[in-house]
Specification:
By secondary structure, the chain is mainly beta. It has helices at residues 73-78, 158-162; strands spanning 22-28, 35-42, 60-62, 80-85, 88-94, 97-105, 111-121, 127-137, 148-150, 181-185. This is Abasic site processing protein.
């Protein structure tokens, strides 16, 4: 269990978080070392960005290049976070179009996805706290559906990923074990962010 010192953000549950929307993330305070659970916007904006309107806002960072990419390397070194999720969606190309699938842990526990965060501040004082998710090559469960998957950080590795412990966080950027996840087809209603209800994660027959 990730213990945060601040109150849980007062936000309704979501079954279909889309880019540009907010999601909860666990971060380590750089001065106190305490863990905070905060709402961040999905779509990474580095602190050095000049124009918020024209800046690209990547929702994913590749594990293979995240430590060296000019966009992400500072955040990878200092601003790593965990993004809790009960499930995530991916799409498989079929002869009839794209079929969405849901992925979740087989043990029923929430996933902790590896992310990076940063804070951008405009000239007028406006602040944007944003994040991106790190993806890696797919494991045997995910590969038939999509070639990439988010990095899932196991509980024993949370201290290393958040910076509580010394070590190389790059070693954690691996596909989840084949026994960790399960996948099932879901309704194409998930394709629209306007649809956001628990029925989205029910299996499509």
């Amino acid at each position: 269990m990730v213990k945060a010192v601040n109150p849980v953000p007062n936000v309704a549950p979501s079954w279909n978080i889309a880019p540009s929307q907010q999601a909860m993330a666990v971060r380590r305070h750089p001065k106190t070392g305490e863990r905070h659970l905060d709402l961040l916007t999905w779509g990474f904006v580095p602190h050095w960005a000049d124009d918020l309107k024209t800046e690209r806002k990547p929702i994913n960072a590749r594990a293979e290049t995240v430590a060296t990419s000019p966009m992400f390397r500072a955040a990878f070194a200092h601003n790593r976070c965990l993004v809790p999720a009960d499930a995530y969606y991916e799409w498989q190309m079929t002869t009839d179009g794209k079929q969405p699938f849901a992925f979740a842990r087989q043990d029923g526990a929430p996933m902790m996805l590896a992310g990076l965060w940063d804070v951008w501040q405009g000239a007028g004082g406006a602040r944007l706290r944003s994040f991106t998710l790190i993806t890696t090559s797919a494991n045997e469960i995910a590969r038939p559906i999509h070639g990439r998957m988010p990095v899932i950080v196991e509980a024993g590795d949370w201290p290393l990923w958040l910076g509580d412990e010394e070590g190389d966080p790059g070693e954690l950027l691996q596909p989840a074990g084949d026994e960790v996840l399960k996948a099932w087809p879901v309704s194409c209603r998930v394709n629209s962010p306007a649809n956001d209800d628990v029925q989205l994660v029910e299996e499509r027959w």
